[in-house]
Amino acid sequence: MDWSGYRKFVTVSLAIVSALVSQQRSVEAAEGSRAGTARVAITPQKPTWMAGYGSRTKPSEGAIHDLWAKALVLEDESGRKAALVTLDLCGIGRELSLKIRARLKSDLGIERDHVVLSCSHTHSGPVVGDNLIGMYPMDEAQRQVVAEYANFLADSIVDVTTRAAKNLAPAKLAWGTGRADFAVNRRSNKEPDVPELRDRLGLEGPVDHDVPVLRVQGASDKTLAVVFGYACHCTVLSLNQFCGDYAGFAQLAIEKNNPGAQAMFVAGCGADQNPLPRRTVELAQGYGERLAAAVQPVLDSAMEPVLTPLKASYSEIDLGFGTMPTRAEIEEEAKSKTLAIANRAKAMLQTLDAKGQLPASYPYPVQAWRLGELTWIFLGGEVVVDYSLRIKRNLGSSHTWVSSYCNDVCAYIPSLRVLKEGGYEGATSMIYYGQPTIWSEKVEDDIIDAVNRAAKTVEPAH
What reaction does this enzyme carry out catalytically (predicted)? Predict the structure, then answer.
């Protein structure tokens, strides 16, 4: 018997069957599923204080390119809608986030567990509301500009999501993962040493170089949206001009490569990851183009179809703080010549006077979506890379996407390892977010427990 011929026959037959199954799954994914997109520029139209770097001493001076709010609204066969809104911003706080999500529920009927507000964490965006406002020496006129921008942003997000919902049309989704290697663990590698360390294979510390990609296609398989992520700080630039940083340049490159598509960046757990080297527009654009180059092969390959319905979970856990400072310690900090320290202390004294005590915990948001085989986790705050690595290691890296900077950028979120090591991500960053002290040593366990509950909640029924 001609075994080589038989093996060839079997191989070809299996390939044909696989293609037919894949094609059928794509058809199933499209049936009953709808998607709509919309965008709006959110670049401040007047000089505004910029968020991210405490060294800035004056408001913005123009823009390198526009900042955007982009909405993707999905609807499954049951008619339930979900909205992902990506923002070229350093962060938004809890109060504004709750206000926006309440309006989306009221206006569009989209429940809070089906809404994600995702910030790219560009350090070349404006201060938004009270998020990080204690870092800067603003006068009352400048504070008013910041407050007006927050109102403009809320209106813009509601409007762009409403327009995306009006644009709903039959669609199919698919997802895959690429790789990009420019993120460097900034706690383990000194910035000036990175080129030499990389040259001799000496870089240290955990990283997550996955580039998850979600593609949304409409009629005639036209790409409507490309959602992608990466775990790295948007800190290439420190100029006084608005810019989406490398994530903004990546979106521009993806949209150039895929005419008519809306590119949307969702940041990963990159709180301890930096793009190194940095500090020039050319480097920011170069990193963006490298990230776009990691996305394109995924789009050009056979991606995994995403089947509906979409399942969602949202909770806020009481994330505990560590040992609280005494009133005497706070009063001493209020005399500090460091603006952020003094401003935090004054705010804590006001809380003590009004309520008699400081809050023992923070309402920390944990969210999960299930799209077919894909489990997508959304975490608040600036989350270090240990979380994404741990979550994917346990839930399965081939079908898990972990995002942070979502819904409430409230503080840095260290793992227990980073908390014990201390430093900026583990301790001193809490000053700039106005939090009263560091997190308790239960921080990682409490968040992982909440993630586990959320992931189980969105598991399909068997």
Answer: an N-acylsphing-4-enine + H2O = sphing-4-enine + a fatty acid
